[in-house]
Structure formats: C-alpha cells, structure tokens
Design goal:
This protein is an all-alpha fold. The chain has one domain. It has 9 helices and no strands. The chain is globular and about 60 Å long. The chain starts with a helix and ends with a helix. Its main location: endoplasmic reticulum.
Length: 237
C-alpha cells in the first residue's frame, strides 16, 4: 500500500515538470534535471528495499501485539475518524521536534543534509533521506497506530493520507485546489517549499501536516514575513 501510493503519486510532479504542465503554478521556476530525478529514484529503490521493507516486516508483529485487527466487521466510522485525527496530532508533535532536532549543526551535516540535496523538491524527494532519518522520522508516523492497535483498514487509510500529504508538500506546485487553500492550519507545498530553499539555520517551517507547532514556537516567522511582503507587493502592483 505504501509503495504503490508513494510512487504513483510521486511520479506525477516529475511528469508535470518534463511535460511543462501547470508551470504557472510551480513555486520555483528552476527545473530538476532528468539525471537528478533518476538519481533520486535509484536511491529511493535502494532505501525502500534495504530500510523500509525490513521495518515494515518487523513492525507487523508489534502491531499485532498492540491489537491490530484485520477481520470483519469493519470499525465504525466514528472510531476511524477519531483515530486518524489522533494520529495526525501525535505525528505533527513528534515530527516537529524530531525535524527541528535534525536542523542542529551536527545532525544536519551528517544526516538531514541528504534530504536537502534537492533545494527544488518534487514529490518523490519526500522520502529521499538518510537511512537514519527514515527510521527517526518514520517513528512519528507509526507511533499512533502502534499505541492504539487499529483495524487494518484504518491503518491503510492512515498510510494513504500520510503519504499523499508528504508527497503534496514536496511536489513543488501550489494549485488553486491545493488543500492549504481550504483546510485550516494545513501546511502544504508552499509552506514546505520555503523550508527547502532557505539556509538550514534560518528555514523554520518544521511542521509535518498542520502548522500549529511552528506557530506556537515562532519558527515560521521568516515565512510569514515573506508572505506579508508578497501580499503588499501584489497590492501595489
């Protein structure tokens, strides 16, 4: 489920770039070279086979131990919705602090700089990272389901939503129909793209899906100043 959703959704932004589609919605005008995109895909295949696959295999017994169910009946929608909301809130909290820690000097230089090799992100770069970071921040995604022991269908839904969110945040395009235009406190591509193109010591915008943690701790001030300046320039023109 994870691999299918990730690669199918992640390849879309590469297609947009290569075909020149929706260029007016592209956040950065710079394009990645086919060589850079191919290198990313090759590394992803190696990482997913060598890191993600073993983690998924070894985590299954842990999920079963915590109460993961796969038999009928399916859980009521109220249970599904409440669990998914809990997962998002918990993941945002854990991811924020883990991501902020990765921007300290030593961890950035030796681990997180791999993810920032692509200053102009595209969908697949969302999981292009050092193996240690994959394990470190991947913990934020699985801790919620591990604690609650959901039904397998709920776990699938969570994986789909989480993958689509991170791919969208790295896609490099801000569309009129982007979720951030409609969902309160949703970060999205424009919010996270700023994080990739600014010097790592000043980037801020560490949040995962929802941006309340950056707002609470003031780590989105640079981004907010830029948005205010752009809005003012738009009014003047």
């Amino acid at each position: 489920m994870h691999e299918s959703v990730f690669f199918l959704s992640g390849l879309v932004s590469i297609f947009f770039e290569r075909a020149g589609l929706f260029s007016k919605y592209k956040i950065q005008k710079k394009l990645n070279t086919p060589e850079a995109e191919g290198r990313c895909i090759l590394h992803l295949i190696l990482y997913h086979v060598g890191v993600n696959f073993p983690v998924i295999m070894f985590s299954y017994p842990a999920f079963k131990y915590m109460g993961l169910k796969s038999s009928l009946p399916l859980p009521p929608w109220t249970a599904v919705v409440s669990q998914i909301i809990f997962y998002f809130i918990l993941e945002d909290f854990v991811f924020y602090w883990g991501h902020r820690l990765l921007h300290t000097k030593w961890l950035y230089k030796h681990i997180h700089s791999v993810h920032h090799e692509y200053a102009t992100p595209f969908g697949l770069t969302s999981e292009y990272a050092h193996p240690a970071e994959i394990l470190f921040l991947g913990f934020a995604t699985i801790i919620g389901p591990a604690l609650t022991g959901p039904h397998l269908s709920t776990l699938w839904l969570w994986v789909i939503l989480r993958v689509l969110e991170t791919v969208e945040a790295h896609c490099g395009y801000h569309f009129p129909w982007s979720p951030s235009n409609f969902v309160p406190l949703y970060g999205g591509a424009d919010f996270h793209d700023y994080h990739h193109r600014v010097l790592y010591t000043k980037s801020g915008n560490y949040s995962s899906t929802f941006i309340y943690m950056d707002w609470l701790f003031g780590t989105d001030k640079g981004y907010r100043r830029l948005k205010a300046l752009e809005e003012q320039e738009g009014k003047q023109s």
